[in-house]
Structure prediction request, 119 residues.
Amino acid sequence: QVQLVVSGGGSEQAAGSLRLSCAVSGTTVRHCMGWLRQVPGKERDRVAVIDSNGMTGYRDSVKGRFTIAQNNAKNTLYLQMNSRKPEDTAMYYCAAGPFQSLCPVYDYWGQGTQVTVSS
Prediction:
């Protein structure tokens, strides 16, 4: 089992920075970690992923603005969000899954945290 607890969401004006955190605990090893987001009426989309080799991937719309990172000593996953835009407004989720190229599959989920970016 893996438990994921998310913190750090909020509502701020565009161009500001925000960092989401995901505390990871449990006994099941998962080699893919990711941040996904969802807006009402749309599918949940991958925002940023990192695998156990440290390889990262980002959706095109956040490249250069968002950074995913892990602190293994603290068992915490982060998403640093800079230069945010109103279109980044969504419910953000932390997730863990088995290793696959580009980390497409997740079987453990944290609770969502709302991020709202106003213009």
Observations:
- The mean pLDDT is 92.
- The two ends are 40 Å apart (CA to CA).
- The chain has no helices and eleven strands.
